[in-house]
Write a structure and sequence with these properties.
The chain has helices spanning about 5-15, 25-30, 35-45, 70-80, and strands at about 20, 55. The protein has a two-stranded parallel sheet with strand order 1-2. The N and C termini lie far apart (about 35 Å). It has a single domain (about 5-80), classed as Winged helix-like DNA-binding domain superfamily/Winged helix DNA-binding domain (Arc Repressor Mutant, subunit A, Orthogonal Bundle), CATH 1.10.10. About 45% of the residues lie in helices and about 5% in strands. The protein is mainly α. The model has no long low-confidence stretch (mean pLDDT about 95).
Length: about 90
């Protein structure tokens, strides 16, 4: 059986370019609907470029952190991918 972290990474890996999911949506899809903060912790320690953690955002409409350049970099990447919410 996969760990929660493995399930989270698998869910995030499937987020298409130009799309986003909230931390809560990822937690739900990974089987632990109350673990949004856990998703954040997993994404914070993700340095695997095959896992597009920049596509995971906060439920309140804010971007959330990004460990590879901060929120400014996250916003730039999302805009390049066609996400214009920020």
């Amino acid at each position: 059986m996969k760990t929660f972290a493995e399930r989270v990474r698998a869910v995030v890996r499937k987020i298409s370019k130009g799309k986003t999911m909230t931390y809560a949506q990822v937690a739900r899809a990974a089987g632990r609907p109350r673990a949004a903060r856990g998703v954040g912790a997993i994404m914070r320690s993700n340095y695997d470029e095959r896992i597009p953690c920049h596509r995971v955002v906060r439920s309140d409409g804010k971007l959330g952190g990004y460990n590879r350049g901060g929120t400014g970099r996250k916003r730039t990447i999302l805009k390049k991918e066609g996400v214009y919410e920020w």
